[in-house]
Amino acid sequence: MSSVIVPSSRVLPSIVIQDAEMGRAYVITSDDLASFKTEDVWGRITPGTATFVVGDSDLLSDVSAHTQTTVPNPDVLVEMPGSGESFFIDSASLNEFAVDLDTVPNDFDGVAFVMPRAVALFEELPAPPAADLQFQC
Asked: What b/e string do you get for 96-106 counting C-beta neighbours within 10 Å, with b at 16 or more?
């Protein structure tokens, strides 16, 4: 388990996932994210699933060790431990939200994540939008 600093929230946020290696970002509104709610979390996770946590405790949340992905088009799991909700987005559905990495608005109102890749460097990313940022240490 790794500890990361995450925003405190019980409201389903809009999210952006920046993927420097692929040169794109995925911008997902809270309404769109809600449509991916799932009860079958463990039945859907594979070694190619990237996991992100929207925390609601003081400052820290535990992120499972299965967060680093080496597949080009991973599935994504967004977890909200405070509400017990999970949202699973398969890679095909995730690609529907893809935009060029440089086109993410600086005033994005939501939570920003970085796709945890073994070869992507934090320095390769453009300045993050005006939102909280989570990354794997």
From this structure: ebbeebeebee
